[in-house]
What does this fold into?
Amino acid sequence: MKAAVAGVNISPVNVDERKNLGIKAGDTIKVHQKIQDKGKTRIQIFEGLVLARKHGNEPGATFTVRKVASGVGVEKIYPLYSPLIDKIEIVKRAKVRRAKLYYIREKVNREIKRQMRRMSLVSLATESEAELAVKEAENQKRMEEEAAAQAEAEQKAAEEKAAAETPVEEAAPEEVASTPAEDEKAEVLEEKLEEAREDEEKKD
It folds into this structure.
């Protein structure tokens, strides 16, 4: 039966049937939704808690369904008379004292925070062969560097000890190299001295 309000078709679905379901906040329902996928139509089931029902039974009536998928809260708002909904099943009903159950979002957050308080951060993992090889190479290199530094320090200490034990020898006076001019002056002086000696011998 097609729904008609003042001679206008609002949906090709059975409106009375969906009205009589009486979906309300607190119900856990399964929504069978038609999805177009690569030219084919498939049915996807979305099961969750009804948080809110709005606009009563009028043509624009909607209901909000929430579920937790892989630890993440997912909410969908469905039009009650949408032709894309193939079927609606009510799985169970719960007695609630509110018309809108939006507090469920905060409640879930509080529970998650409570669980997080009990958790402790742990960093544990296995090491791959490549990481182990790199670590071994680094350790080998570090050990070689330490051994080289230690050998160098020992050699330096031995040299300092040997230098401290050997007596300090007096430096021999260095011979000063004479210039050609100084050599000529010395020769002239020697000649004059020889002439003076010869004169004295003649006088004697």
